[in-house]
């Protein structure tokens, strides 16, 4: 008997017909004698709609109430999916995150899973039931609902696969796997058959929202191999797994674009030891995560500091830095919202030189100006104008020959 965790994303359960189609697919697996746990997302658009309503009532809703609200989306889907399976004669039971035993820390809207008590799921599986679990949510152990951040149903699936020692973890979505770039932006992007955790983690963290970054981190930590594949056909997808030697043969695995960033420029900061420390300490205390920091050489006793933050945090970042500068002898803060971060990722970069040169000349040839650069062992990121993001993605994708590789 094979134990399978299957996750179906928002588009895959987007309407009644699609829910019925997923149920039929689950029935096939169940009839073949497998133990199946199904994780579902909210129908596509529902989470955004709920967020819109919250913000229309209160522009700064409390995180606890936000979780209470957003968990509703997944709760609708589990019930409908159970009903669809019952209609096909398949024994099935729906469970919220809490009922599935998923216990988290109390960090509302970005909770981390601390343990999963699998007893109830195990009991259902023993009885031959399909268990349908609401993705994206858990409980803090004090009967408060918590959620895992956008795209968090992926984390539910990977974590359940680990806790239940599943033989297979399948992430069903609206594309056929992980591609060399977002196939909706780069028409000739190619499906990747196997990718390492590290590459998948970089792509996800750098804007490829096909997998939630935290779910990949979790999968790497607990060695959960998983497959990303289409819910609309039977084609094999992309296997995400531990690095194997041959993966290094490919220098650049993929291109990611993140359009949800903002650039913060702090100018005329007093150039003395501790200035940067104070700014980043204050930002850290305010819960703003900072990326791509560049400081120029100080002149006449002042320096400029530029960095990127998630666009949602840009006002908080501006306020935090302004308050600090006012107390600290002056300086200016400016926010630039219309930027994008483009990155190339590949573990093969560790042993190859020249990647930066290809990237920069491709952008130059396309007339795209580079505002900031950062590198790590397996990625190079640049900040560019938001309007240039798509053309830059296509240009860079073809400069590295990713369609034909
Ligand atoms: P789900 O609702 O199933 O979780 P998501 O919308 O979260 O699906 O993720 C799937 C989407 O991710 C695709 O529709 C695609 O546009 C986007 N995407 C971005 N980068 C990539 C990539 N490199 N490979 C595949 N899909 C990508
Ligand atoms: N419904 C949540 C979201 O839209 C979680 C998910 O879909 O994975 O972010
Ligand atoms: Mg998703």
Which properties best describe this structure?
binds adenosine-5'-diphosphate; binds magnesium ion; eight-stranded mixed sheet; 405 residues; binds aspartic acid; alpha/beta
Quick recap of the structure?
The chain contains eleven helices and 20 strands. It is of the alpha/beta class and 405 residues long.
Write structural notes for this entry.
- The protein is an alpha/beta fold and 405 residues long.
- The chain is 34% helix and 26% strand.
- It has a domain at 3-174: Carbamate kinase (3-Layer(aba) Sandwich).
- It has 11 helices and 20 strands.
- A hairpin with a 5-residue loop joins strand 7 and strand 8.
- The protein starts with a strand and ends in a 6-residue tail after the last helix.
- The mean pLDDT is 96.
- The chain binds adenosine-5'-diphosphate (ADP), aspartic acid and magnesium ion.
- Adenosine-5'-diphosphate is lined by residues 9-12, 41, 151, 173-175, 178-179, 181-184, 203, 208-210, 254.
Biggest sheet record: 8 strands, mixed
Number of helices: 11
Instruction: Provide the residue-averaged pLDDT.
Output: 96
Give the DSSP E fraction (strand runs of 2 or more residues).
Answer: 25-35%
Parts with pLDDT < 50 across at least 5 consecutive residues: none
Q: Radius of gyration over alpha carbons?
A: 23 Å
DSSP, total strands: 20
Shape descriptor reads: globular
The CATH architecture designation of the domain at 3-174 is 3-Layer(aba) Sandwich
Give the % helix: 25-40%
CATH class of the domain at 3-174: Alpha Beta
**Name of the CATH superfamily of the domain at 3-174:** Acetylglutamate kinase-like
The bound ligands are: adenosine-5'-diphosphate, aspartic acid, magnesium ion
CATH topology descriptor of the domain at 3-174? Carbamate kinase
For the biggest β-sheet, the strand order reads 3-6-2-1-9-11-12-10
Helix-and-strand structural type? alpha/beta
First-last Cα distance: 38 Å
């Amino acid at each position: 008997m094979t134990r399978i965790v299957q996750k179906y994303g928002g588009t895959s359960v987007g309407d009644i017909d699609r829910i019925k189609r997923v149920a039929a697919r689950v029935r096939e697996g169940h009839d073949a004698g497998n133990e199946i746990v199904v994780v579902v997302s909210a129908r596509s658009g529902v989470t955004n709609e709920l967020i819109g309503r919250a913000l229309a009532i209160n522009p700064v809703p409390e995180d606890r109430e936000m979780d209470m609200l957003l968990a509703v989306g997944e709760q609708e889907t589990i019930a409908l999916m159970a009903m669809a399976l019952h209609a096909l004669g398949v024994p099935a039971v729906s469970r919220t995150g809490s009922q599935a035993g998923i216990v988290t820390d109390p960090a509302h809207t970005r909770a981390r899973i601390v343990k999963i008590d699998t007893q109830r799921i195990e009991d259902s599986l023993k009885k031959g039931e399909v268990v349908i679990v609401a993705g994206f949510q858990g409980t803090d152990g004090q009967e408060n609902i918590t959620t895992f951040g956008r795209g968090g149903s992926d984390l539910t699936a990977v974590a359940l696969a680990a806790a239940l020692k599943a033989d297979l973890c399948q992430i069903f979505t609206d594309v056929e796997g992980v591609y060399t770039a977002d196939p909706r932006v780069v028409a000739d992007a190619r499906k990747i058959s196997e990718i390492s955790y590290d590459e998948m983690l970089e792509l996800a963290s750098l804007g490829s929202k096909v997998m939630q970054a935290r779910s990949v981190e979790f999968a790497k930590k607990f060695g959960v191999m998983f497959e990303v594949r289409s819910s609309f056909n039977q084609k094999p997808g992309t296997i995400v797994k531990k690095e194997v030697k041959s993966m290094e043969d490919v220098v650049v695995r993929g291109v990611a674009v993140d359009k949800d960033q903002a650039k913060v420029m702090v100018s005329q900061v007093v150039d003395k030891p501790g200035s940067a420390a104070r700014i980043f300490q204050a930002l850290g205390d305010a819960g703003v995560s900072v990326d791509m920091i560049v400081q120029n050489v100080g002149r006449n006793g002042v320096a400029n500091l530029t960095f990127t933050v998630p666009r949602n945090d840009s006002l908080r970042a501006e306020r935090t830095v302004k308050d600090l500068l006012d107390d600290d002898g002056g300086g200016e803060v400016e926010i630039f919202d219309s930027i994008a971060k483009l990155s190339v990722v590949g573990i093969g970069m560790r042993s190859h030189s020249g990647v930066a040169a290809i990237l920069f000349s491709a952008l130059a040839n396309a007339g795209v100006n580079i505002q900031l650069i950062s590198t790590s062992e397996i990625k190079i990121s640049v900040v560019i104008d938001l309007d240039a993001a798509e053309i830059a993605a296509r240009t860079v994708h073809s400069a590295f020959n990713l369609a034909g590789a």
